[in-house]
Design brief:
Blueprint (H helix, E strand, L loop, with lengths): L10 E2 L4 E2 L24 E3 L7 E3 L3 H7 L33 H22 E3 L5 H9 L5 H19 L9 E6 L5 H9 L4 E6 L7 H8 L4 E6 L18 E10 L2 H14 L4 E9 L12 H5 L6 H11 L6 H10 L11 H22 L2 E7 L10 E7 L2
Parallel strand pairs: 5-11, 6-7, 6-9, 7-8, 9-10
Antiparallel strand pairs: 1-2, 3-4, 10-12, 11-12
Helix pairs in contact: 2-9, 2-11, 3-4, 5-6, 9-11
Length: 393
């Protein structure tokens, strides 16, 4: 095969299409897939995480900054919040369920949602005046930036309504998977008197926490670089004087949410007062069966098996991947399947709600009052569910 269009010739096994990355002149593969070139002598799998590759000449420098590396800081305890260490878990989540496995659970998903989840799912979009004012004053913002701010406005509004803003230095807001920390920035704008601890496994440029500290130099805000499954909050000096710990996340991916909840509960069992959390998970298709905390709830609906979970995880992706369109195309060529009875996008939405309800029920079982809330409409984001958990009095 010749890369006559300037694109990588590697065929992605799962997507069954070519990689779309550009290649250098005369090359068949992009940098990431150069390892598959029979003439390759320069690129090797990363020894820390074989899911990515690195140039031999840059290996020493890469090992010092690889996002998959485990640091030596005192607050790192490898795999302490995981069942199977996800960073060491190098195989990708590629198990795609068979059509029979999907067919086995679609009615169970539909029924579980109608008989249990639907009546407990709260639809409530909030706003916060600071974020809304910024949106009004900046009409030129693009759609992508605006939709994130709409989500942030609702999250901060829910925090305010539930008295979960850190209003004094002894109360710490812990953001899991902070990324560029735009959420933490707006929470700190609403509650500048509190303390803030941010955590993310990767580095980021143009971080909003730098902007927050520039605007308010006296703000108490610190960032840790660490994968959530390794974080021991009890050993973080920043929290030694904290009387209460609130937690928040926005679009915390896959099993990271489960590891994050374990991190908070492990800290609570060791003397850190984990009081409440507002969690917005995402990317349910990246969840792992071994790590998922809500398996007892799934068992009540005959969904607690590796095969059923793989199908449930796969169905959840229908809420975001245009499955209804593919279903329409199938009808046009005369194919008829379970998709005619259960609209895929709606089925995916229900699967996501079931997965969040399972997490909420587990938190309820360990002493927290929980609510699953649709905090923005699906047109803003199909990843539109949050779990609100408050310590029972």
């Amino acid at each position: 095969m010749i890369a006559d269009d300037g694109r990588c010739t590697y065929v992605l096994p799962k997507k069954k299409r070519r990689c779309r990355m550009l290649v250098k002149s005369g090359k068949l593969f992009c940098g990431e897939h150069a390892i598959f070139d029979v003439q390759n002598e320069d690129r090797i799998p990363c020894p820390i995480d074989t899911k990515h590759t690195v140039l031999k000449s840059e290996l020493e420098a890469h090992l010092k900054r690889c996002n998959a590396r485990i640091g030596a800081e005192e607050w790192i305890d490898p795999d302490s919040n995981a069942i199977k260490g996800e960073t060491r878990h190098n195989e990708k989540i590629d198990r795609r369920p068979s059509e029979e496995e999907i067919l086995e659970i679609v009615e169970k998903v539909w029924t579980c949602y109608e008989d249990f989840v639907q009546s407990r799912l709260v639809v409530s979009q909030k706003t916060h005046s600071l974020v809304e004012k910024f949106l009004e004053e900046n009409p030129e913002l693009g759609q992508a930036k605006r939709k994130h701010l709409v989500q942030i406005s609702s999250i901060v509004g829910h925090l305010l309504e539930n008295n979960l803003l850190p209003t004094e230095p002894s109360t710490c807001m812990f953001e899991l998977g902070a990324g560029k920390a735009q959420l933490a920035y707006w929470i700190a704008k609403a509650a500048p008197e509190g303390s803030y601890l941010l955590m993310d496994r990767s580095g980021a440029r143009n971080k909003w926490d730098n902007r927050a500290l520039s605007e308010t130099p006296e703000l108490r805000m610190k960032r840790l670089r660490c994968s959530i499954e390794h974080l021991d909050l009890r050993k973080v000096d920043w929290l030694q004087d904290a009387e209460k710990l609130f937690a928040v996340c926005k679009h915390f991916c896959g099993s990271a949410t489960d590891a994050g909840i374990r991190c908070l509960l492990n800290a609570s069992s060791k003397g850190i007062r984990f009081d409440s959390a507002l969690l917005v998970p995402c990317c349910h298709h990246k969840s792992r069966y071994d790590e998922y905390i809500g398996r007892e709830f799934l068992g009540n609906w005959q969904l607690d098996s590796l095969e059923a979970f793989s199908a449930l995880r796969y169905i959840a992706s229908f809420a975001t991947n245009g499955a209804d369109l593919r279903c329409s195309e199938a009808r046009e060529i005369g194919q008829s399947t379970w998709r005619d009875r259960y609209p895929p996008t709606e089925l995916g939405r229900r699967a996501k709600a079931i997965l969040e309800m399972g997490r909420a029920e587990w938190l309820r079982s360990v002493g927290y009052e929980t609510t699953v809330i649709e905090y923005v409409p699906a047109r803003v984001s199909p990843e539109n569910l949050l779990i609100l958990a408050k310590r029972s009095s």
